[in-house]
Amino acid sequence: MSLDIELRHLRYFVAVAEELSFTRAAERLHLAQPALSQQIRQLEDRLSAALFLRTPRVALTPAGVALLPAARRALTQVQQAAAIATKVGAGRTAVLHVGLSSAASLTPFPRVVRDFMARRPDIAIRMREMHSTDQLDAIRSGALDVAVVRETVTDDSLALRELLREPLMIILPSRHHLARLGAVPLARCANEPFVLFPRSGAPNLHDQIVGMCREAGFVPRVENEAHEWHTMAALVAAGFGVCIAPASVAALRVRGTVMHRLLPNTKPTALFLCTPAEPRPEPIASFIKFVLSEMRSQSETDPEGRLLKRGREGRR
């Protein structure tokens, strides 16, 4: 099988796949239909796979269905790389679009991004707060260059690098009868109402929290849901329940709440940097290298990261 595939092959394939008509695709591409058909045949020969069923109507074969999202990503990545090269070559700023979850915004990550921009004035960062699942969709579509997520993925088109680990802790109303404890046995929360986020936003973390409760002998009774940590903490302060959250949420310092370690010591939750798989343009590669290095350093030395450090020490 020859893999001498050119970008025009992918562009022509995507057009036919989206139109499901060689005639309409040819009009869209401003090509003669026979020339378009020849190019698609050439792509199929090089892949040793039929991509379209041509009778009675045009339809994608299983091979075509598998190729379509990868072809779209490849075309998007090439366009992004070309745009960055053009801007840098002209002395203009490259722009990286970075997604982050609400909890990630409470870690040293935003300050590390600020430091990166100070070192690389030729690269601008545009950050968007999004749920983990939405970030992964945005990475796949090319709307984001980098995502900060709690989700692990098995998608070969994406690459994950661990950014930090932090313990899960319990948020209680400050006048709760368990608030006086230095560390709270999770089993003692069996009869408490819980505040939790919808599973759709971060399935891995949601399942981890529910799994912890099951291991402690109960199923959490979720009476109130919210999408953002500050809202969940505010509901706890108002007495609507208790909440399990990453240690970084302590940075919110919501009045009327306390945050304690859980017993037994629980498996930490991780944040990951997610990017498209290789190849990556230079600005993205530089950003990843800097952020990973600085986060490893700041997780141990940053004053606002001391809670995370204590959590790690508690697991030893």
Task: Describe the model.
- The protein is α/β, with parallel strands linked by helices and 316 residues long.
- The protein folds into 3 domains: 7-83, Arc Repressor Mutant, subunit A; 93-165 and 271-314, Periplasmic binding protein-like II (D-Maltodextrin-Binding Protein, domain 2, 3-Layer(aba) Sandwich); 168-267, D-Maltodextrin-Binding Protein, domain 2 (3-Layer(aba) Sandwich).
- 43% of the residues lie in helices and 22% in strands.
- It is built from 10 helices and 13 strands.
- The N and C termini lie far apart (53 Å).
Give a short synopsis of this structure.
The protein is of the alpha/beta class and 316 residues long.
Set out the fold topology.
Elements: H1 7-19, H2 22-29, H3 33-47, E1 52-53, E2 59-60, H4 62-89, E3 94-100, H5 109-119, E4 123-129, H6 132-141, E5 146-149, E6 158-166, E7 168-173, E8 183-185, E9 193-196, H7 203-215, E10 221-225, H8 229-237, E11 243-246, E12 257-263, E13 269-276, H9 282-301, H10 306-314
Parallel strand pairs: 3-4, 3-5, 8-12, 9-10
Antiparallel strand pairs: 1-2, 5-13, 6-13, 7-11, 7-12
CATH superfamily of the largest domain: Periplasmic binding protein-like II
| Percent in strands | 15-25%
What is the CA-CA span between the terminal residues?
A: 53 Å
Q: Which CATH top level class of the largest domain fits?
A: Alpha Beta
Count of spatially separate domains: 3
Computed structural class: alpha/beta
CATH architecture of the largest domain: 3-Layer(aba) Sandwich
